[in-house]
Amino acid sequence: MKQRVILLASLLLAFGSEVAASTLNQNVSWTIDRAGTTTKYRLVAYGDSIYAGYNGSTSNAAKYSAPTVDAEYLSALWNADIESVRRTKSGAVAKDVYDNKIVAEKSYMQTSNTRIVTFEMCGNDGLQARTAFKKQTGTCDYSVLTTAETNCKTYLVKAMDFINANAYSGTRLKVISNLHYPGYTADNVQSSCRDAATGATVKMQDKFLPSLARLNYWMCEYARQKGFQCADNFAQYMGADYDRNGDGQIDSAALRHVSGESESSYVNRIVTTLRSTIIDSNTHFVSAGSSYDYIQSDDTHPTYNGATVSAGLWGGTTGTGAPRYTSFTAGKNPIWNQYGHERMGWAVSTYNPSAP
Question: What is the pTM of this model?
Fold first, then answer.
């Protein structure tokens, strides 16, 4: 296995936490080197700390974050080497991801071997709005949530339009990943501020869940309108993989966005009808008696399998390695539902075209 560390042109400001104002570029290029072939295709992923594989470090990140997990699936499907290029910025809001990754680094999706372009954004818009709301006293100001939603929708559209106009013409798949709800259980507490109409404090989960549902609806709906697929991470993370409420549906499937449904229908299904089936993804049940932790100890970022690579203040990694798995039963690797990044990478992989 070979690695070549590429130093960043300049050092960044110290990086604190995901919701801090500072941000951290975490760029990685990792090639799944499949035996018996030299043909190589490219998967390009733009985003924030989620696609970066952030693990709390300013100098390294998960080797197998979701885009590289998908690259491993692609390598087997296409019998080819797959280069997973992650152009990411931890801590970045949607505007930052759009301006400084998707637009400024468009060249990565313009190469003639590019076949898949994927992106995720808006998590930090939501996290920063949540932090601001939690600090409020006096009368609650809900505008911080609506502003985050508006900004997210603005840059979702811009991102999709830009990718459609600039990605290599031979690109076979464009896909967005929507948002899980980190800290769902932690938000099951009352606010410090009081509602203007009732004079009472509000349960923060009751305010944040509808806002997140609206964001996720528009991620998937804009995807439908603009020729993208939508990997529904909210459903994959927040719903169990069996029928907990006896309605005849596996919970994670029942929570999924339905293409073409209305915003009101989707939001009502998430916030009201199926609310009882939503579980914090720190305890993701794969059966009635077995669960896995999809979220790291920071209660925000997905768990991952395997080693880390340089990605951060001291540069980004360009490397090559053999796939962990070379074949997949029913399109799933043996740990597809055991880690957050494995689940997200599998969700993206379900849209992979059969040939490049």
Answer: 0.93
Q: How many helices (H) and strands (E) does the chain have?
A: 10, 15
Number of domain units in the chain: 1
- Residues 127, 183: contact at Cβ < 8 Å? no
Domain of residue 326 covers: 2-349
The crossing angle, in degrees rounded to 10, of helices 66-78 and 340-349 is 40
Each residue's pLDDT tens digit, 296-334: 999 999 999 999 999 988 888 899 999 999 889 999 999
In the Cβ-directed half-sphere of 246, how many Cα atoms lie within 13 Å? 0
Is the residue at 355 inside a domain? no
| Residue 121 in domain | yes
Q: Does 354 reside within a domain? A: no
Contact 240, 284 (CB under 8 A): yes
Contact 134, 204 (CB under 8 A): yes
**Within a domain: residue 113?**
yes
Task: List the CATH number of the domain containing 266.
Answer: 3.40.50.1110
pLDDT tens digits, 100-144:
999 999 999 999 999 999 999 999 999 999 999 999 999 999 999
Cα torsion 214, 344, 353, 71 to 10°: value is 140
Q: Which amino acid is at 299?
A: D
CA pair distance 286, 338, nearest whole angstrom: 8
